[in-house]
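haha ok so turns out i had the wrong file open the whole time. this is the CORRECT one, sorry everyone. sequence first:
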Amino acid sequence: MEKENFNVRVSNKIIEILDRDMETFNQKNRNSMINKIIFTYLKIKNEDDIQEKILNDIKKIETNISEEKEKKIKEIIKKNIYETLTIKKGSSKLVNFHLNKKTFDECKSLGENSNYFDTEFFRVVFEWYALKAKYKREQILFHEEISIIKEAISKSYELEFNVRINDEKQIKIQDSYPFGMFESKDENFNYLVTADKNGVTYSTRISNMKNVSLIRKVFSVSEEVEEKAKKRIENKYFAMGNTIQCKIQFTEEGYHNYKMISHLRPKPIEENEKNKVLTFNEPEDSLFFYFKQFGQSIKILEPQSLKNRLKDFYKKALESYED
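then structure:
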């Protein structure tokens, strides 16, 4: 059973963040994403709501606060926290959504007399979400998956999950041993570090994971593998999979672009400036995601697997523009 539709007016900035996050974090649709945001807020608001934190700090100083005074303090806090997202004339839109059964039941469980179905409550939730950094918003949308992962880490249980490797394909990961998570604040995502049964360590972006399930079987790995996993977490190393050796030849334009595009740029182990050939020792996925933006300004000399991936990528991109 689902609650009737809600229409909440919020700033255009919030709309932009919701629409962008829907694509960035691989969400099915806006309504599903909004339900996740509301559900997570209801689960963690007492520990995470910045308004509550500030109010609790004030109460430590002034223990006897009347209800009327507390209400006024809350209004002052909200005004100062959310002033950057204040709705202005001509710069706001209505967000239409309905609650699914799980979110509706969670709202209802908090009390029939509570204001959890008021549009003002939902507006506060949207503002709470939108004010956070991107990696924090990812944690909100994947709160349930992260809870499962944390249990697996604390109890040394195995995990199974699907991982999204491109726009169309997912692969199933089994016999996966989780060691920890880290926040890559520079890249603005969250990663889980795991090892497989062969001892290969991986960093998997949380928002690329689907159907996470806990296998109640305790794992054990060698000290060497455990040390590799710990180093990934400590160094916040988000490149995926084993490293490969790769040689790339650049045009003048491509070499210039490589020097200019610093975000996620791989470091060469050899550099032949005369022929503009760089050699890398990096995970193939990392090389693919960085160099796919270079088009005809580079040529992959080796390995063949990376050549094939880029050929397929450009072929599909071309097909999407054909009538």
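The CA atoms of residues 74 and 182 lie 33 Å apart.
again sry for the mixup
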